[in-house]
């Protein structure tokens, strides 16, 4: 069989990296491989055992390079492909995930003097310990009437570049001084592949407060006099447009991956945003929910609106010529996993083992047997804080209605429903702001849970479409590699040829919709009571927890 051009997409997730080999002509996924990060998420201690405070989440950058060395060759082998047919490689990353580096790209944690310093490591997207800095940024921006603040729903998240950078300056000034670049991991991995530092427009816009320029030195100085030069000294760099070629594969990276030296390396991107073209969601109103450990909601619009609590709106942030909107939930699959790991009695684990299924599958089966409302519970899905629409990572989870008759499957279903309610709040915020959501496309690992999908369709009272690929972000990255290599003129053309979606797979059931409408009213009342200042108990509990652990 004659050879055809191929591209490789690599999706760097929270716990692992996944590579996929894709045929340029039609998007066929020929081979895939996964490599787990050796260090995983450092949220309790550094590799040397040094304990970490609450709300920290770090990673080791070498783990990302190991994905290139292992997953990419394994995917090519699984595809039975000739590496010589590969014309480009594209990557995507969780965001906002930040790497402090020297001028040559060396991460600071790899320097002997900083090996035991937490601030020298990668700050993962779910590092929420910079909430205090985020609060100050928001308060000052509101007081000064900064024009960029409404573009982010009125609030900047503790997950983002500036809050994390200010935390670094104030808690580890020696590390901050030694840092030459404050780099998104999405750009750092492209740097490792191409030898060229190219800052991508997506993370700059959504996570780096870039809206026709960055916040002014005067604003930064008012936050902290030593922060005035943050943009000029640590952050600013020429921006690469999505789908552009950042450079070509170096000899070293070619040796890591087994791919040909000199092929195109696409400008970096974010895992959620790169998934929209993979799901052929490139028109206004088509929202994609990438559901995994967290959920990111992205959508294109042909108008600019201020949506309360959105993560950002960026011109060309997803596809050229449209406004790209982003919102999200900080915890979804993470919440379900936490409950299974820490809230399910041993007898359930034993039953699952006897049947050869996971505890998740067992609880889903039991929950699916219930009528809506039968468990008598309402939960708030804030176990990892609230990203949208409240933008407050000091909030925490809640389950109300428990009795001595409550069982594990009851709480599990309530948590599933809570995440659906959270998405409903987000979609309602867009509709109310004049940016209607006309279609919801689901991507990510949780699409496999049919009960969860039906709950979402019923809570939202709208059909759910499903991406046609199990590797949405990796496929999207491969598509951008095809554009960078010149195989398609732009990402819209690539989406038409290489993307995949199944429309209207899950339909709302009228009777279910009616009951969930009543339950959502209860959720919304709890949401506003605990999230909008009527009761600050969650904030007080977080403060007490820090005090008990010896934090300031």
Automatic annotation (TrEMBL):
Q: Where is the Carbohydrate kinase FGGY N-terminal domain?
A: 7-275
Signal peptide limits: none
Q: What reaction does this catalyse?
A: D-ribulose + ATP = D-ribulose 5-phosphate + ADP + H(+); L-ribulose + ATP = L-ribulose 5-phosphate + ADP + H(+)
Task: Identify a single GO molecular function assigned to this protein.
Answer: ribulokinase activity
> Which residue intervals define the domain Carbohydrate kinase FGGY C-terminal in the entry?
288-485
The UniProt keywords, alphabetically, are: Arabinose catabolism, ATP-binding, Carbohydrate metabolism, Kinase, Nucleotide-binding, Transferase
Q: What is its EC number?
A: 2.7.1.16
What does UniProt give as GO cellular component? cytoplasm
The record's top EC class is transferase
User: Which biological process terms from the Gene Ontology are attached to this UniProt entry?
Assistant: L-arabinose catabolic process to D-xylulose 5-phosphate
What the entry lists under Gene3D superfamilies is as follows: 3.30.420.40
| Pathway involvement of the protein, from the record | Carbohydrate degradation; L-arabinose degradation via L-ribulose; D-xylulose 5-phosphate from L-arabinose (bacterial route): step 2/3
Family, according to the entry, reads as follows: Belongs to the ribulokinase family.
The protein's name:
Ribulokinase
Its source organism is Saccharothrix syringae
